[in-house]
Each structure stands twice: as C-alpha cells, then as structure tokens.
Amino acid sequence: MAGTGADTPRERYRAQVREEIKAHAWDQIATAGASALSVNAIAKRMGLSGPALYRYFAGRDELITELVRDAYRSLADTLGAAAAEGADLAGLAHVLREWALADPQRYFLIYGTPVPGYRAPEDTTAIADEVMRTLVDACAALAPAGPETPQAPFATHLLGHRGWAGDQPAPPEVLHRFLAFWTRLHGVLSLELAGHFTGMGFRPALLFEAELEGLLAPRF
Amino acid sequence: MAGTGADTPRERYRAQVREEIKAHAWDQIATAGASALSVNAIAKRMGLSGPALYRYFAGRDELITELVRDAYRSLADTLGAAAAEGADLAGLAHVLREWALADPQRYFLIYGTPVPGYRAPEDTTAIADEVMRTLVDACAALAPAGPETPQAPFATHLLGHRGWAGDQPAPPEVLHRFLAFWTRLHGVLSLELAGHFTGMGFRPALLFEAELEGLLAPRF
DNA sequence: AGGTTCCGTGATACCTTCTAACGAAAGCGT
DNA sequence: ACGCTTTCGTTAGAAGGTATCACGGAACCT
After folding, report:
1. Which of residues 44-73 of A touch strand D (CB under 7 A)?
2. In this structure, are residues B61 and A36 in contact, taking their beta carbons and an 8 Å threshold?
3. Least packed by Cβ within 10 Å: which of A30, A59, B67, B91?
4. Is A73 exposed, middle or buried (0-12, 13-18, 19+ CB in 10 A)?
5. What's the CA gap between B196 and A65, in Å, rounded?
6. Higher per-residue confidence, A219 vs A25
7. Alpha helices, DSSP H only, in chain A?
8. Which residues in B lie closer than 8 A to residue A176 (C-beta atoms)?
9. Neighbouring C-beta atoms of residue A20, cutoff 10 Å
10. pLDDT tens across A88-132, in order?
C-alpha cells in the first residue's frame, strides 16, 4: 500500500474529498439502507451544493459501485489478514460473522438483494474471487477430507466443473465443503441480520456455531 | 375462500383496480426490482394520471407492504397445498425452490435485504409464522429424529427457548432440523438467485439437492 | 330522479438525479 | 512573480418521483 498515486496537491485533495463522500455514504447506508442513499443529502451534510459531488463521482450508481468495491476489499482484507495470522476455517467463520455484524448493510450491499440489471465490474468480481480463494484454501488446509458418501452426485458433478476464473483446481470434496461453508453461513447470517429470527427467542450465534461445527466435521 | 367481502359494485370495482395495480407492480418489480417501483409509472401504464392510484393505496410504502403480504400468502399457500397433498420435507424443499425460481424478486421481497426502519405489520408476520409452522410440521413428521450428538449446546439451548409466537412446542431436534433446513436452503437459494454462482460453472440445483440430502439424514 | 359518495384530473409543493454554463480559486510553468 | 490553464463549486434548469389538495363529473343508492 505504498502510494495511492496521489502526488499533486490537487489529486491529494480530490482523493480526500472522495473518501469523505464515501464516509458520509456509509453513514447513510448504515442507517437507512442503500436504496435510500442520496447524493444531494451527502452534499448538504458536507456543506456543499448538490451538483458539486458530480465532480467526484459520475453519479449515484458509480458511487454505490465504489462502495461495493470497498466492501469487498474490506472483507477480503479482513479474511486475508486472519488467514495470514494462522486462522483456520473456524477462525475465518468467526471473522466473517464479526465483519457482517459490524455493519449489516455493508454485508447486504454485497450479498443482499441484487439489482436485476446490474453487472459488477471486472475488478470487483476479482476481489470477490479473492474472498473465495481464501475460504477455499482454508477448506483445503482443514482436513484429510474423508471421502464422501458413496452416493454423492454433486461431488462427481464438481469433478467435471471444478474451478472457476483461473483458479488452481481443488479436489471436489474441498470445493463441496467450501460451497457448504459459504451457503450455510450466509443462510444463517443473512436471516439473522435481516431480523427473521427476532421473536423466535433463540440466540442466532449458537445456531451459527452449530452449523460451523457440522461444517468442520470430517463428513459435513 | 368464499367471499372476499366485495358485495357492492363499487367495492368490486375497487378490488379489481387494486389487483390490477398490484399486477403492474409485480411486473415492474420482476424486471427492475422493488427499489425501482414507481407509482407514477404504474398509473401511466394503466392509462391513469399519477395521483389516481392514491385512491387505492395510501402510498408507495403501503403498496409494497401489500405486495409483501401477498408474497407471503402465496408462499404459505403453495407450501400448504403441497403439504396437504402429502408432500414430505423433501417435497416442500422442491416446492420452495420452484416458488423462488419462478420470481426471484418476489423471493427477495420477503427474504432479501431489509429496510432498516421497516417493521412488518402483525398479519404479515402471522403469515410468515404459517410458513414456519408448515415446515416445522414437516420436520416433525419426517423421522424418528435420532438423538443429537452428545455435544449439542444448541439443542439444549433450544430446549429452553423453543417455540415462538404461541406455537405448539416441538422437540429441540425438530426445531434444530427446521432451522438448518431453512437457513441452508435459503443460503443456496439466495446466492443462486443473486447470481453469485454464475461463472463458477456448476449447477446450483445439484448443490441444493446435496444440501437437501444432508438435511434428510438422521443426523443432519 | 335526487342526493351522496367516490373517482379521476390538474395544480402544486417538495424531493430526487443529473446536465449545462458561469465565476472563482487554485496549481503550474515560465 | 505573473499569467495560463485546469479544476472546483455555484446557480439554473430539465425530467421524474412522491404525495396533497380542490374541483368536476360519473356512478351508485335511495
């Protein structure tokens, strides 16, 4: 993270204002959701007039895209740092949960309801792949990966279709565990963050833990 | 479902227009998402002027709330009908998946990104509970429910906190299976519908099937 | 057939995104 | 240090959104 490419004072100022805009945007998203994000409201809170922000972002969509990119970057860095410090799959699961609970709307910005027409830009999906790779690696490093049950059509399916986006091929059991890890934890997390467990009177953290426990077993 | 309470021609007309409005709203949601739903656009497509629709819905929020209610109603009826025809837990899982695939945005309207401030009205949550109950019943009817592993802190936790909203108490193993069923299938479905599996080159249906298979096992 | 109720309209206020044109400020090169 | 150039922030305005209001007309009910 040497230089962010801001040498001239103009570029330094520009980058600073961009960050300030994004900070206000995150504030607004955290309290009212991404759909309520208003360029005008951000400008007013910064003491500027509406169109001023269009010097820094082409429009609302580009601002949100940038926020999505930053969210992915934050998740990839958080998981990557934990993995670098020796966290195993269980550790990454807890890091993921903490990251999601810290800012639910940030989590939903990534894994929430998609906008039908939207296509994430290339570099954003690259960061998403980085997240995947960290988790796949943790799955690969986890266990001897006991052979799956005889009847495992999905594993044989993965055998032919494993790997994506120039990824180093992983054994189908590893990929299967990764997919189960991802989808199960996302299932618990997203329903918890959306408040679908409120009123049921149990602690979602324990359900998360129980699911994680099952994921770590030789046969998950 | 005898009479919907529309006796006078006025009420019949009113109900009909309301349904037409909602039909256009669903159309719009399916193609552009709920956040892009526009009362004005619906009015114009119906050959009406903007404010006309405010005779039928207090505002955009009430219209969306009504759509959420209808979505829950549709899901509850679909699952309930399948259960009444003898579908077991696996059958309900497939019915759920078909229902979700038929209109992803309808699924996300229920289980997608929540609006931070929003609280669903009483009757809507009642329908949501109806969905839960159908699934819990199917879980209860499924198996002898082999005792869980010795180390099952979540099951003992459920023992003290089981049941919600005036529900007949179910054994903790049943509740645990229900929660795993719900969260795991939602995890696969929501990520699939959001397009997070595109480019990975495997068939989500098989992952769904594999997860379902695990859910049906004596020890899931 | 008369009276009342309801429907749809246009006008209006206020919000939003976003473009265009202008003035001012700041950096850059000489 | 001065001038040129680039950039910034502004106001004005178009286009579209939600939502309220008052009014004319149609439909219903008695």
Report:
1. 47-52, 55-56
2. no
3. A59
4. middle
5. 16
6. A25
7. 9-32, 39-45, 60-84, 89-102, 104-111, 122-142, 153-161, 172-193, 204-216
8. 210
9. 14
10. 999 999 999 999 999 999 999 999 999 999 999 999 999 999 999
**Tokens encoding A66:** 């940038």
Instruction: Note whether B126 and B119 are within 8 A (CB).
Output: no
What phi and psi, each to the nearest 5 degrees, are found at residue B102? -65, -30
Residue owning tokens 């998946």: B97
Question: HEC string of A45-90?
Answer: HCCCCHHHHHHCCCCHHHHHHHHHHHHHHHHHHHHHHHHHCCCCHH
Instruction: Report CA torsion sign: A176, B193, B90, A207.
Output: positive
Token pair belonging to B131 = 């969905």
Using a CB–CB cutoff of 8 Å, tell me whether B125 touches chain A: yes
**In which element (H, E) is residue B85 found?**
none
Of A197, A192, A201, A200, which is closest to residue A97 (Cα–Cα)?
A192
B50 phi and psi angles, rounded to 5 deg: -45, -65
Q: Which long-range contacts (CB under 8 A, 24 or more apart) does B86-89 make?
A: B87/B138, B88/B138, B88/B141, B88/B142, B89/B135, B89/B138, B89/B139, B89/B141, B89/B142, B89/B181, B89/B215, B89/B216
Question: CA A177, A154, A150: angle at the middle one, nearest 5?
Answer: 90
SS3 B146: coil
Instruction: Give the model confidence (pLDDT) of A128-157 as tens digits.
Output: 999 999 999 999 998 665 666 655 778 888
Residue A204 dihedral angles phi and psi, to the nearest 5°: -60, -30
Q: In this structure, which amino acid lies at residue A219? A: R
Q: Mention every residue, 6+ apart, whose C-beta is less than 8 A from residue A201.
A: B161, B163, B164
- DSSP conformation class of A196: T
Q: What are the angstrom distances between the C-alpha of B8 and each of A26, B15, B140?
A: 51, 11, 45
- Which window residues (46-65, chain B) lie with Cβ within 7 Å of strand C? 47-52, 55-56
Burial B75-113 (b: 16+ CB within 10 A, else e): bbebbbebbeeebebeebbebbbebbeebbbbbbbbbbb
Segment B132-149, tens digit of pLDDT: 999 999 999 986 656 666
Q: Tell me: the pLDDT tens digits for B21-70?
A: 999 999 999 999 999 999 999 999 999 999 999 999 999 999 999 999 99
